[in-house]
Design brief:
Largest sheet: none
Radius of gyration: 18 Å
Shape: globular
Structural class: mainly alpha
Number of strands: 0
Order of helices and strands: HHHHHHHHHH
Distance between the termini: 19 Å
Number of domains: 1
Number of helices: 10
């Protein structure tokens, strides 16, 4: 039951964020949006370090001075994986008119949802890998630490859900209900990715340190490729910086206090 709850917590964050479409008329205030993007970046970077990379190196301590290898290799593979997805899947980021990936005739709204869905995959994998490690009896990963990661991702998913549902309502002239459903579905990939990862855990346990680092690399790719640039564009970029510090500190506190 604890595992099921842990897997659904991030999805709940996206759902609550998407529900903002019922209470707000237009897009989020630009200042608030920059703050939330920075906050989400801080949460993801802290989660990548404390919940994924450090446990990956701790699990490899029998390698002595080479304990960094699984973390370094997994990190690079995670970056490469998201880079390939960015190239082969058509998607459109918020505030951008030119779509990325192969040319297609998909609607703008569909590509907006694809962009968020694409970047939710590593978050779902991260939760699944951490819970897999806990179920496998890894001392470095406790239930509290796994729940801390789920809560941290849920916190950063809240603004993400709002950032996708509100533009669908204001720019695409969708009904509030349809914008909410699409915003919610963009986060549905997270529990799916987590469940698939756990289902394969029996085969993945020997390479768990690599998988933890892989998830960290994929999450960091999202931060560097999308979140930080969006938070830094235009005026009031300092709000994104402040948000980053707040998000990083909160996730660090959650991981250390609960772990």
């Amino acid at each position: 039951m604890n595992v099921i709850i842990g897997l659904l917590i991030p999805f709940a964050g996206t759902t609550l964020g998407a529900a903002c479409v019922f209470f707000l008329r237009n897009q989020l205030n630009p200042k608030l949006q920059k703050s939330l993007l920075g906050f989400a970046s801080g949460v993801m970077v802290a989660a990548a370090v404390w919940s994924l990379l450090i446990p990956a190196m701790d699990m490899s301590d029998t390698m002595g001075r080479l304990a960094f290898i699984p973390a370094a290799v997994g990190l690079c593979l995670g970056f490469a994986f998201l880079l390939v997805l960015d190239v082969v899947i058509p998607h459109l980021h918020l505030g951008v008119t030119e779509a990325e990936g192969p040319h297609c005739k998909l609607k703008k709204t569909t590509m907006l949802v694809l962009a968020v869905t694409l970047h939710n995959i590593p978050e779902g994998m991260a939760v699944g890998v951490v819970f897999s490690g806990m179920l496998a009896g890894q001392e470095q990963i406790t239930l509290a630490a796994a729940l801390a990661l789920s809560i941290g991702i849920a916190i950063q998913n809240f603004p993400e859900g709002a950032v996708i549902s509100l533009p669908l309502r204001s720019e695409a002239q969708m009904s509030r209900a349809k914008a909410f459903v699409l915003g919610t579905l963009s986060g549905a990939v997270e529990p799916v990715a987590a469940v698939i990862t756990i289902a394969l855990s029996r085969f993945l346990t020997p390479v768990l340190p690599y998988l933890l680092a892989f998830a960290a690399g994929a999450m960091l790719y999202v931060v560097v490729e999308e979140l930080i640039p969006e938070a830094s564009q235009g005026e009031h970029s300092n709000l994104g910086t402040i948000g980053f510090a707040a998000g990083f500190a909160l996730m660090m506190i959650l991981d250390v206090a609960l772990g």
